[in-house]
Amino acid sequence: MGVSTERDSAGIAVITVDYPPVNALPARGWFDLAEALRLAGRDERTRVVVLAAEGRGFNAGVDLKELAADPGHAALLAVNRGCHEAFRAVYECEVPVVSAVQGFCLGGGIGLVGNSDVVIAATDAVFGLPEVARGALGAATHLSRLVPQHTARAMLYTGATVGAEELRRFGSVWRVVPRDELLGAATEFAAEIAARDPLIIRRAKESLNGIDPVDVNRSYRYEQGFTFELSLDGVADRTRRAFVDGESS
C-alpha cells in the first residue's frame, strides 16, 4: 500500500498509487506522490512518467474520514497542501506525465489528470468533481483543462460525471482502451516519447508550460481558499460528516 516507482531500461518510470479500498489518499499519501514525481523527473535516466493506480479506480480524491476525525483544521491544512504539492509535481515534472486512468477519477484525481501531459483511459473510466456534495471546492482549474467551460460548470454544480469516450471527443483523452489493456497502452505510448531525444523532450515540456494561458498552481491555490472558508463557516464539516456517516451506515 502506498506509492511505488518502477523504472525500465527505456527510461519509463511507472508511479503506482495503491490506497485500498478506493484510492482516497490521506495527506501523507499526497505528499508521498509529489515526492515520487519530483524524484522521477529530476533523475536524468527518466524520459517519461506513467502515473497509474491499483484497484477499482484511479483516484477518489482525499480521505474524508481523515478530515472528519480531526476536531480542528490541521488535517484540512495538511491535505490542502498535499494536494497542491501533488498536482504541482505532475505539472512541473521535467518530463511528460502520461496518466493511465481506470474506473473512477474523482476530486483530487481530476487534479492529477488535468495537469498531466497525456491521458489514456480505460473504457470504464468516469471523471467528475463531487466536491460540492463533500463540503469542498477545488480542481475546477484542472477540470477546465479537460472539458469545455460550461460543461465544467455544470459538472461542478451537480457532481455529474463524464465518461472516457466523451473526454476523447473533447480532445483531452488521447486513447480509450479495454481495461485489461490500459497499462500496456500507456507504456506503449510512453515508449514513443522515450524514443525521442531526452533533452528535446524536457525542453518541450518546459516550453509548453511556459506558454500555458493559466497559472494552474496559483489558480488551484485560489480555489482552496474557498474550501477553508467553508470549513471556518462550519458548513463543510457538516457536509463531510453527513457523507461519511451515510457511507458508513
UniProtKB/TrEMBL annotation:
Gene3D superfamilies: 2-enoyl-CoA Hydratase, Chain A, domain 1 (3.90.226.10)
Signal peptide boundaries: none
UniProt superkingdom: Bacteria
InterPro entries for this protein: ClpP/crotonase-like_dom_sf, Enoyl-CoA_hydra/iso
GO terms of molecular function: lyase activity
GO BP terms, alphabetized: fatty acid beta-oxidation
Pfam families (alphabetical): ECH_1 (PF00378)
Keyword tags: Lipid metabolism, Lyase
Similarity section: Belongs to the enoyl-CoA hydratase/isomerase family.
NCBIfam families: PRK07938.1
PANTHER family for this protein: (7AS)-7A-METHYL-1,5-DIOXO-2,3,5,6,7,7A-HEXAHYDRO-1H-INDENE-CARBOXYL-COA HYDROLASE, ENOYL-COA HYDRATASE-RELATED
Descriptive protein name: Enoyl-CoA hydratase family protein
Organism from which the protein derives: Solihabitans fulvus
